[in-house]
Amino acid sequence: MADDLSSFAKDIFLIKASKKSTLVWRMAVLVIAMACGVYICSICLKQISTRNKTGFLDIKVVKRPCPEPNIEPWEIPYVHYPKPKTYSRDECACNPVRNFAILSMQRSGSGWFETFLNNHTNISSNGEIFSVKVRRSNFSTISETLDKIYNLDWLSSASKNECTAAVGLKWMLNQGLLQHHEQINEYFRTRGVSIIFLFRRNLLRRMISVLANQYDKDAKLLNGTHKSHVHSPHEAEILAKYKPVINSTSLISQLKQVNDTTTKALEYFKRTRHIIVFYEDVVKNRTKLLDVQDFLKVPRRDLKSRQVKIHKGSLSSQVQNWDDISKTLAGTPHESFLHADYRR
Q: Which domain of life does this protein belong to (predicted)?
């Protein structure tokens, strides 16, 4: 009886052991199956990710770069393809753009000259941007402003936007230009900016224009409105009626100071690609504007301006103390200013 019980107990143990072994095997198979499933899923995900990446790469390849323009090797640094943040250039995206800056002095004809440039369908000259002091407070603000202009993100009435072929601004020498000339020179060099120097030969005429403009800022002769430039002969005649008195004592030193400033500017920026234009030459011969268009590499156009000249005729009729001025300048290097009337 004891043997039977012992045998029965052994059978039960074997049955339990067999069930336990089967359960272990089942668990092992399940673990292996799960591992295989995870592995297969990871491979599938990688394949999907690779396909997506390949798709994006294909899209980039489809976008063809702008073709190289047919230009001389030396011109390459001056050709740009801006990508404005504020709009798309659309079909003009591959039209090259050249950067420029008009460097001048107040009352040297720069406003009149700029209207000619903006009359061209492919030129955008954005005015006297740095007349606002905060924009020239340091070189950082200067470079940020220039970046907007040359990236075609500076929107003004002069902006041609998409199909601009030459973009720039008017910059007076006393607006931080000479103060930060080293950094600005480097900026011009790295950004491929060309310079148009616009000066006035007859500095005495310029002085008369400066004094008359200063007077009108307070007097506001045109119906209580100050205008630096006019578009009708009638308005020009009203402003020309004012005849300033020039301080003959400080006259020579003032003329010398202006001459030294222009000389300094030419010296500072002589290594930057530039052209020198004189106001008197443009007045006498409008074909000088063709030289400027060739310099900017834009198609030649017959450019026009609506601005009307304010001060005309002999200098003796434009100031009150002409005799004092004549005596002061006689026998000096500036004597030619008394007689010059848009001559070389």
A: Eukaryota
